[in-house]
Amino acid sequence: MTLSANFRLPFYRDLLMALGICSVSKRSCNYILGKGAGNAICIVIGGAAESLSAHPGTADLTLQNRMGFIKVAMQHGASLVPVFSFGENDIYEQMPNEKGTTLYSLQKHFQAVFGFTLPMFHGRGILNYNFGLMPYRRTIVSVFGRPIDVQKVERPSIEEVLKVHAQYIEEVKRIWEKYKDEYARQRTKELRII
């Protein structure tokens, strides 16, 4: 699934559709899950906001206030499977963009206007290893957590959503704690849920 804005670009839209990629809108999620058992969706929960905090050696997940995916899963009785990819933030370097900097302000403004943002990043080149747009050769290991089975609830209450959300965050933290010393040896910070 990808941002709805990607479907506004004529040829890119056709490529996405040919690959079977759908918009990450609530409507698309409901359509796919509404088809019944055997259909699944994969959503990068943190999205554009999380991309701004993706620096090597860190694991800052924008998850604390993201609950729409929980509600949609509950409305369809679809299980949630947390996945954490170790090393994902290590394949590119990103310019320093802490909150309060001019670059961060520009990126947030761009996000507000266009619905996504562009991190200022660099990787390696084809013939050099210092600068370019190719990712650095680093290992990425994706660990799948335990499925969180949810009961189908037509109109889930905020308390029900918060309960499942807490289970989801706990499973992400469990994955981190279990595998961080094996797959995140070069970390500079511990996992933060923001």
Nutshell version of this structure?
The protein has 6 helices and 6 strands, in the order H-H-H-E-H-E-E-H-E-E-H-E.
Write the layout of secondary structure elements.
Blueprint lengths: L9 H9 L7 H8 L13 H5 L8 E2 L6 H9 L6 E4 L6 E2 L7 H13 L6 E2 L18 E4 L13 H26 L8 E2 L1
Parallel strand pairs: 1-6
Antiparallel strand pairs: 2-5, 3-4
Q: What is the tally of helical segments?
A: 6
**Spans of 5+ residues with little confidence (pLDDT < 50)?**
none
What fraction strand? 5-15%
| SSE topology string | HHHEHEEHEEHE
Whole-number average pLDDT?
92
- Please state the CA-atom Rg, rounded to the nearest Å: 18 Å
Beginning-to-end CA distance, first to last residue: 22 Å
Q: What is the topology, as strand order, of the major beta sheet?
A: 1-6
Residues in helix, % = 25-40%
Work out the number of β strands: 6
Overall spatial form = globular
Structural class: mainly alpha
Tell me what you see in this structure:
With 194 residues, the protein is mainly alpha-helical. The protein is built from 6 helices and 6 strands; from the N terminus they run αααβαββαββαβ. The strands form 3 sheets. A two-stranded parallel sheet has the order 1-6. α2 packs parallel to α4 (68-76). The protein starts with 9 loop residues before the first helix and ends with a strand. The mean pLDDT is 92.
Core attributes:
194 residues; mainly alpha; two-stranded parallel ribbon; two-stranded antiparallel sheet; 6 helices
